[in-house]
Design goal:
- By secondary structure, the chain is α/β, with parallel strands linked by helices.
- Helix content is 47%, strand content 16%.
- The strands form two sheets. A six-stranded parallel β-sheet has the order 2-1-3-4-5-6. Strands 8-7-9-10-11 form a five-stranded parallel β-sheet, with helices on both faces.
- The relative contact order is 0.12.
């Protein structure tokens, strides 16, 4: 057992959204439990293709100059690895949600994705431990690189949901909550929309609380991703007992067991997506059965009460 207050440095290009939001929540939970957590946030050049490399450069400089001595330096996503390498810490951890090179190749030009893949293969050798949130990512990296990733899932905080007011359910409302990016498959949902017997509401750039109010008032959440890890939106919908239709890609089937906790459809198939959504709009008993099972799944597996002790044990074991 590690004795004394553990001091951690968290590094992320931003502390919101997917993996950045996870880093922020983990830091908040650790601080509540007596850990000292410093977050390294670095502004970056707002040019699409340079966003991550510029973060890597600026944060490395900050990392080199950092006076702090940390027990653990924990980087989130590949660009954070440069600062992680140079910051002073007894142990280094790097967390990835999804295969970085694959995500970049879907979003950017060939030269940018080639650079990203070279950077990825280089930086994965730097940390003492690699972690991810899904079996799918763990398996993909093992096959590609031979490296072992430990699974530590991202969680939700039920206390945050107490601030979401009661809302009326809106008949036939279908929600999308996520970034308007290619890998999230928003275009697939838009192609399916004319065939859906309801109204689709897109929450792509709303404050979290506003997006949650819309999700809570909806009859279905749709997750039409081409690539994804363990989407937080699915966990949130499960907690609100909103049934979910998602694609059978990456880590999504680790959350949605088809016809048990939700419905799975093949990716890039607007027809099947619309059919699945309509089947739940038409069959409220089935929708309730799925949403009740989703709620039990998230409550028993993916709240911070259950997940945080796994992180603490991981950090303690790493230091010993």
């Amino acid at each position: 057992m590690y004795f004394g207050m553990m001091k951690l440095l968290f590094i992320s290009p931003r502390f919101s959204g997917g993996i950045g939001g996870h880093a922020a929540m983990l830091a908040e939970q650790l601080i509540k439990h007596g850990f000292e957590v410093e977050k390294l946030e670095v502004p970056h050049i707002p040019i699409k293709n340079l966003k991550n490399p510029s973060f890597a450069v600026f944060s490395s400089i900050r990392g080199i100059l950092s006076r702090g001595d940390f027990d653990i330096v924990h980087g989130f996503n590949i660009p954070s690895a440069y600062a992680m390498k140079f910051a002073k810490g007894k142990k280094k951890v790097l967390t990835l949600h999804g295969v970085f090179g694959v995500h970049v190749s879907m979003l950017h030009s060939k030269p940018v994705s080639s650079v990203a893949k070279i950077a990825e293969s280089q930086v994965l050798k730097w940390p003492d431990k690699l972690t991810t949130d899904s079996k799918a990512t763990q398996k993909a990296y093992k096959e590609q690189t031979g490296l072992d990733f430990e699974i530590l899932p991202s969680a939700i905080d039920p206390n945050k949901f107490l601030n979401i007011p009661s809302v009326e359910k809106i008949e036939k409302q279908v929600a999308f909550v996520g970034r308007e990016t290619y890998e999230k498959g928003i275009d697939i949902l838009k192609a399916a929309e004319p065939k859906i017997n309801g109204k689709v509401v897109y929450c792509t750039n709303l404050p979290w609380k506003d997006a949650m109010k819309i999700m809570k008032s909806s009859q279905i959440l749709v997750v039409p991703s081409r690539k994804d890890s363990l989407p937080t939106s699915i966990k949130e919908a499960f907690y609100f007992k909103v049934p979910v239709v998602g694609t059978n890609v990456d880590g999504i089937p680790e959350l949605i067991q088809d016809n048990v906790t939700g419905l799975l459809v093949p990716p890039e198939n607007p027809q099947k997506l619309a059919e699945a959504v309509n089947s739940l709009l038409d069959d409220k008993m089935k929708a309730k059965k799925l949403s009740d099972a989703g709620y039990e799944f998230v409550k028993n597996n993916l709240t911070w009460d259950i997940v945080l002790p796994k992180f603490i044990k991981f950090y303690e074991k790493l230091l010993n």
